[in-house]
Specification:
The chain is of the alpha/beta class. It folds into 3 domains: 5-148, Globins (Globin-like, Orthogonal Bundle), CATH 1.10.490.10; 160-243 and 289-309, Beta Barrel (Elongation Factor Tu (Ef-tu), domain 3); 320-521, Rossmann fold. The protein is 40% helix and 15% strand. The chain has helices spanning 5-13, 15-36, 46-51, 53-67, 76-89, 93-115, 118-148, 246-253, 258-262, 269-275, 292-300, 320-325, 340-352, 416-425, 448-466, 488-500, and strands at residues 170-181, 184-191, 205-212, 218-225, 235-240, 306-309, 331-336, 376-382, 429-435, 481-486, 508-512. The chain has a 6-stranded antiparallel sheet with strand order 4-3-6-1-2-5, with helices on one face. Strand 10 (481-486), helix 16 and strand 11 (508-512) form a beta-alpha-beta unit. The longest helix is centred in the first third of the chain and has 31 residues, at 118-148. The radius of gyration is 23 Å and the shape is globular. It starts with a helix and ends in a 12-residue tail after the last strand.
Length: 524
C-alpha cells in the first residue's frame, strides 16, 4: 500500500534528522539486530561493521529512499546493485521482517519520543514496507533467473541447456593457482559435481563462503569479481592480499574516535560509541581485520581445497545491446589495482566476441562472427614496488614515452603479458600500463599532500593518453563506452576527468569494491 500524502510529508520531513543522526541510528540498528539474531552475522563483513562502512551504506540508502518517495524510478540503478548483492548473499523476504523491526526500534531510541511520534512511526513503517517490497520483488526475479539459468538472456551469453543452474551455495574445488602480480593470485575453481556452469555477464561477481579459524570457524562471505570470460568448465577469481589498516580497525574495535570508527567525515560516530552497547565493536581486534578472507585464500587455499560459491550476480557488465548495435563502438577499460579483475573478463569476452581479422602480423586473430574488429583500449594503474626509489612514481610501462617503473615481482602488472600480446595481434586494441600509489590508496593512511600528489599524477597520465597517438581514450567518439574499476580515489578522479571532457555520464559505468553505493562521489 502506498503512503498517504500526510505520511509522505512526515517521512520527507524527517530527512534532516536522518542526516544528523543516520549513522548513529544505523550503528545501533546493527548492534541490536545482530545481538538478537546472531545467526545473521555471517551476512555482514566484520571489518565493514567495525570501520562504519556498513552503517554509512544503510544510511545512504535510507536517505535516498526518503528523498525519492514519489520518484522511485530514480532509485532503480542503486536498488539494482543492492538486490544483486542481496541475492549473492542469500537474502530472503523473511530477513526484511527482522530488519524492519530493529530499524524502527533504532529510529525511536535515537530520535526520542518528542520527535518519534506515533504518526511518524506509522509513516516510516509503511515507507519501509514499500522499500522492502521493491527489493524483495526484484530479488525474487533474480532468484528465478538463477534457478532457470536465464540470468544472461543476451544472445552472446545464450542459455546452455546442459548447465546446472543453482541458488544458494555450490561446492567448488581449487584446481590451480596462478600468480598474476605481487600479492595477486588467480584461483581456478571447478564445480565438485562436474556439471557445466551457467554463463554470466563479464564484469559480474560471485560470493565465496569459507570457514575462518580465527573467527571460531564461523563462515564468512565475500564477493570476488569473475576475472575470466564465461567458461562452462570453471570460474576464475583473482584475489589481492589486503594489508589492511590494522591501527584503524583496532581503534574501532576499542570504540575509539569517530574518525577511526566511522571514517573521515562520518557523522554520529562519537555518539554511537556511547549509545550503542559496548559489545557492538568490542572483542578481539583480529575479528575486525580487513582482508581476513582474502588473506586466508592466499595463505591456505591450494589445489584440492574446497570453497563454496553463489550464482554469479552484479549489475556491472558491458552493454551488449549497444555493442550489437554498433560493431565499431570503442570500448575503454580503466582500472587500478585489483580493479583489473572484472575488466579482464570484459576484455577477454569482447576480444572473443568479434571475428577473425588481419592482425598486425598479417595472420587472423581469434574471434567469432563479426566482419570488423572492435576498438578496445585498456589502461591500468598498478601500485609501485615497495623497493621503488620513489614512493610516488606514476609510470607508463606500455604507453609511448611513459616513464618506466618497477613491480614487486617480475615487473608486470596483473594480466599485463596477456593483454599486451592481444594488443600486438589486433590492430584495434591498445594497452597502456602505469604505476601509481593511487592503485592502493584505499589501503593507505595517506595525508592530504600525498593524496593530492598522487591524484595530480593520475590526471597527468589521463591527459597524456587523451592526446597520445591513436587517441586510446576515444574521447572524440560520441558513443564510446567506459568501464571504470579500482580504488575509490582512482574512480572519483577518473570520473571527474571524463566529465570534464564532456563524456556523457550514461556512457560511463563504475564498479565500487566497497559496501554501499558511493556513486554520488563522482562529479559528473
Amino acid at each position: 500500500m502506498a503512503l498517504t500524502y500526510k505520511q509522505s510529508v512526515l517521512v520527507r520531513g524527517s530527512i534532516p534528522a536522518l542526516r544528523e543522526h543516520g549513522e548513529t541510528i544505523a550503528t545501533l540498528f546493527y548492534s541490536n539486530m545482530l545481538r538478537g539474531h546472531p545467526e545473521l552475522k555471517v551476512l555482514f563483513n566484520t571489518a565493514n561493521q567495525a570501520t562504519g562502512r556498513q552503517p554509512r551504506a544503510l544510511t545512504s540508502v535510507i536517505l535516498a529512499f526518503a528523498a525519492n518517495l514519489h520518484h522511485t524510478s530514480e532509485l532503480i540503478p542503486r536498488l539494482e546493485r543492492v538486490c544483486n548483492k542481496h541475492c549473492s548473499l542469500g537474502i530472503h523476504p523473511e530477513h526484511y521482517d527482522v530488519v524492519g523491526k530493529y530499524l524502527l526500534q533504532a529510529f525511536a531510541q535515537v530520535l526520542g519520543p518528542a520527535a518519534w511520534t506515533p504518526d511518524l512511526h506509522a509513516a516510516w513503517s509503511r515507507a519501509y514496507s514499500v522499500l522492502a517490497r521493491m527489493l524483495s520483488g526484484r530479488e525474487a526475479q533474480l532468484y528465478r533467473q538463477f534457478a532457470a539459468d536465464t540470468a544472461t538472456p543476451h544472445a552472446s551469453t545464450a542459455h546452455d541447456p546442459d548447465a546446472a543452474a543453482w541458488t544458494g551455495w555450490r561446492p567448488f574445488t581449487v584446481d590451480k593457482r596462478v600468480d598474476e602480480a605481487a600479492g595477486m593470485v588467480s584461483f581456478y575453481l571447478y564445480p565438485v559435481d562436474g556439471r557445466r556452469l551457467p554463463l554470466f555477464r563479464p564484469g559480474q561477481y560471485v560470493s565465496l563462503r569459507v570457514q575462518v579459524p580465527e573467527l571460531d570457524n564461523q563462515p564468512q562471505l565475500r564477493q570476488y569479481a569473475l576475472s575470466e570470460a564465461p567458461r562452462p568448465e570453471y570460474y576464475r577469481i583473482t584475489v589481492k592480499r589486503d594489508m589492511g589498516r590494522l591501527a584503524a580497525a583496532a581503534a574501532a574495535a576499542r570504540g575509539g574516535s569517530s574518525a577511526a570508527a566511522g571514517g573521515a567525515g562520518g557523522k554520529g560516530g562519537a555518539r554511537a560509541s556511547s549509545i550503542v552497547n559496548s559489545g557492538a565493536r568490542g572483542g578481539d581486534v583480529r575479528k575486525f581485520r580487513p582482508g581476513v578472507v582474502s588473506n586466508l585464500l592466499l595463505d591456505e587455499k591450494w589445489p584440492g581445497d574446497a570453497v563454496e560459491l553463489s550464482h554469479p550476480a552484479g549489475d556491472f557488465w558491458v552493454d551488449e545491446d549497444a555493442l550489437e548495435a554498433g560493431r565499431s563502438l570503442p570500448l575503454v577499460l580503466l582500472s587500478a589495482g585489483i580493479g583489473a579483475a572484472p575488466l579482464m573478463a570484459m576484455f577477454n569476452g569482447s576480444v572473443t566476441a568479434v571475428s577473425p581479422v588481419p592482425s598486425r602480423a598479417g595472420t587472423p586473430s581469434s574471434g567469432g562472427a563479426s566482419v570488423r574488429e572492435r576498438p578496445i583500449s585498456w589502461v591500468h594503474w598498478s601500485a609501485p614496488s615497495s623497493s621503488s626509489s620513489s614512493p610516488s612514481s606514476s609510470s607508463g610501462l606500455a604507453s609511448p614515452g611513459g616513464r618506466r617503473g618497477t613491480d614487486g615481482t617480475d615487473g608486470t602488472a596483473p594480466f599485463q603479458e596477456h593483454v599486451r600480446r592481444v594488443a600486438r595481434e589486433r590492430t584495434q586494441t591498445a594497452a597502456h600500463f602505469f604505476r601509481s600509489r593511487v592503485a592502493e590508496m584505499d589501503d593507505l593512511e595517506a595525508g592530504k599532500e600525498e593524496t593530492e600528489r598522487e591524484l595530480m599524477a593520475l590526471r597527468m597520465d589521463l591527459a597524456s593518453l587523451a592526446e597520445a597517438p591513436g587517441r586510446p581514450l576515444h574521447l572524440d567518439h560520441g558513443a564510446a563506452l567506459y568501464y571504470v574499476c579500482g580504488t575509490e580515489a582512482f574512480m572519483e578522479e577518473a570520473g571527474r576527468f571524463l566529465a570534464e571532457r564532456r563524456v556523457d555520464r550514461a556512457r560511463v559505468k563504475f564498479e565500487w569494491f566497497t559496501t554501499g553505493d558511493p556513486a554520488e562521489k563522482v562529479v559528473v
